[in-house]
Design a protein that fits this description.
With 155 residues, the protein is an alpha+beta fold. The chain contains 4 helices and 5 strands. The protein has a single domain, classed as Yope Regulator, Chain: A (2-Layer Sandwich). Helix content is 39%, strand content 17%. A 5-stranded antiparallel beta sheet has the order 1-2-3-5-4, with helices on one face.
Length: 155
C-alpha cells in the first residue's frame, strides 16, 4: 500500500501508574505503621504477598482485595487449615467485617478475603482514588493480619 508524500503517522505515549508502584507505595506505608515488619520487594505482578507465620500461608494484597491465601502444596492440608480457621468464623467476623471465605474449587488453594468495591481499572485511577486505595489496603491489612495471626499461630 502506498502512502502519499507528506503523510505523517503519530504515536501517542501515555505514562500510567501500574501495579508495581502501587505495591511499592503499600510497602512503604505499611512499614510506617509496622516498623518491625520485614519489607518485601514488589515484583511486576498483580499481587504482593508476605508470609503469614506458617509455611504455605500468605497475606496478600491485590488491587481490589486483601486476603489470606492458603496453599501448602497439598489440597487436603489446605482444606484442613481453612476448616480450622472457619471454626472461628463467628469470632473472626466480629473483628473483621465483610469477609469472603473461598474454597477455590478449581485450584487446590483456599483464601479468605476482604474486597474493596473499586469500579475503576488500575490503569485509569485518579490520583486521589489511588491514594485512598493505598490507605484502605494498609489499614485493612494491619487489622486483617493481626486478627488472623492469632488463629494461625494455634494451627
Amino acid at each position: 500500500m502506498k502512502h502519499p508524500k507528506g503523510c505523517f503517522f503519530g504515536v501517542e505515549i501515555q505514562l500510567i501508574r501500574i501495579g508495581d508502584s502501587l505495591y511499592s507505595e503499600l510497602v512503604e506505608e505499611y512499614s510506617k505503621i509496622r516498623p518491625s515488619w520485614r519489607k518485601v520487594k514488589p515484583l511486576p505482578q498483580s499481587w504482593l504477598n508476605y508470609g503469614a507465620g506458617k509455611s504455605g500461608l500468605q497475606f496478600t494484597w491485590s488491587f481490589k482485595s486483601n486476603n489470606l491465601y492458603i496453599d501448602t502444596g497439598d489440597g487436603n492440608e489446605n482444606e484442613r487449615i481453612f476448616e480450622n480457621l472457619e471454626r472461628h468464623k463467628e469470632k473472626i467476623e466480629k473483628e473483621l467485617k465483610s469477609l469472603t471465605w473461598e474454597r477455590l474449587e478449581e485450584k487446590r488453594a483456599c483464601r479468605i478475603c476482604i474486597y474493596k468495591n473499586i469500579r475503576a481499572n488500575i490503569r485509569t485511577l485518579k490520583e486521589e482514588d489511588y491514594l485512598k486505595i493505598v490507605k484502605w489496603s494498609v489499614e485493612t491489612m494491619k487489622n486483617f493480619s493481626e486478627v488472623f495471626s492469632r488463629y494461625i499461630e494455634k494451627l
